[in-house]
Amino acid sequence: MTVSAVPSPEELPHLWQRPAYATLLDVLQRLRQEPRIWGLKESREEILKAQAASMAEAAFNRQEIISFLSSIIKSALPWLDNDEQREDIWEEASRRLAERCGRTAMGEIIRRWPFRDENIGDFDLAIREPPLTGDSLGLKTWGSSYVLAQLLPQFSAGPLAHLFVGDEPLDVLELGSGTGLLGIAAACLWKANVALTDLPNIVPNLSHNAQLNRATVEAHGGKVEAAALTWGSDDYEEDSHPRFGQGNRYKLIIVADPLYDDNHPELLSSAIDAQLSLESDARLLVMVPQRDETTKGLTKSLRFKLEQASSPLTLNEDAMAAGEDDWGEGETDEADRVGFWWGIYRRENPSW
């Protein structure tokens, strides 16, 4: 992790001094606030550097930074050489201001998510998140995706080991992929063929992230592709890709943080029932953050619906995992800590 030094009060230029283009650009770039990446086990030195950088800005006075950025945006910057330089500075200042106004104001971002695995080596996944506008929860990478992704090697070596026998890559279906972090990580860590799925309006960004990480995935022996799959819909032309019309094809389905509305447990359970293989070795791996009483209630409803499916599923194993989430706008680390329930299901009465 590289932490840039936050400018000191003495380094923050005054516009009446007509600072050069290079000076302004350097200061603005050093004021950048990167989106948080959490859950990775960092060294003590890295953590202390990150804390020091955060404390430096707090001591520097957030309001002073905002005033500085606002003054640049308001200024005509007449001393700069040309309009291109002025546009560069205005754009950088606007981005720095947006970064201090919450995720919704930040526009499009690309987060790099690091993975450390002693068997296949270290790698990063680049995940694009478009601007968050309106009901666009599927365009944000939620904490559970990263938490579950980091647990995948433990599952493939433990309760899911029977699915990873032999040289043939496993076909995996991810439901509600969102930005695709979990499914793309599964393709790398499991050397699997992963189908990333979500609503039709989410798929373009999902496809973009699949392509963005394709070289990394293939270097690790996996494959990813994105396609539309709308829960509860039988329209395999408009709402879902025709390939999902066949049904009950996948020996393993994975899903993380899929419940946001009262009808989601029923819709999700119907999609799982329709796509999960009817064979005895088929498994569902699901993770749901227990943020509050609402998400706990939705989890309980999902578990009930899975048990009542046309071919019922039974819980094989479950536990809680500790992790972090940025669902809300918590100002403290404590506010971001969440318990993540995960469960592994199998068919109660398999066909064979």
Average pLDDT reading: 84
Between the first and last Cα atoms, what is the distance in angstroms?
50 Å
SS field, number of helical segments: 11
Task: Classify the secondary structure makeup into a structural class.
Answer: alpha/beta
H-E string: HHHHEEHEHEHHEEHEHEHE
> How helix-rich are the residues, as a percent range?
25-40%
Gyration radius, rounded:
23 Å
Which stretches are low in confidence, meaning pLDDT under 50 for 5 or more residues running? 329-335
Largest sheet, in brief, is: 7 strands, mixed
State the strand order across the main sheet: 5-4-3-6-7-9-8
Instruction: Report the sheet-strand fraction.
Output: 15-25%
What overall form do the CA principal axes indicate?
A: elongated
Q: What is the total tally of β strands?
A: 9
SSE layout and pairing:
Elements: H1 21-30, H2 44-60, H3 62-74, H4 83-99, E1 109-117, E2 121-129, H5 143-157, E3 171-174, H6 181-190, E4 193-198, H7 203-212, H8 214-219, E5 223-228, E6 252-256, H9 264-275, E7 283-289, H10 293-307, E8 313-324, H11 333-336, E9 337-347
Parallel strand pairs: 3-4, 3-6, 4-5, 6-7
Antiparallel strand pairs: 1-2, 7-9, 8-9
Helix pairs in contact: 1-4, 3-4, 5-6, 9-10
Keywords:
352 residues; alpha/beta; two-stranded antiparallel sheet; 11 helices; elongated
Give an account of the 3D structure.
By secondary structure, the protein is α/β, with parallel strands linked by helices. 37% of the residues lie in helices and 20% in strands. The protein contains 11 helices and 9 strands. The strands form 2 sheets. It has a 7-stranded mixed sheet, sandwiched between helices. The protein has a two-stranded antiparallel ribbon with strand order 1-2. A hairpin with a 3-residue loop joins β1 and β2 (121-129). The N and C termini lie far apart (50 Å). Residues 329-335 have low confidence and may be disordered.
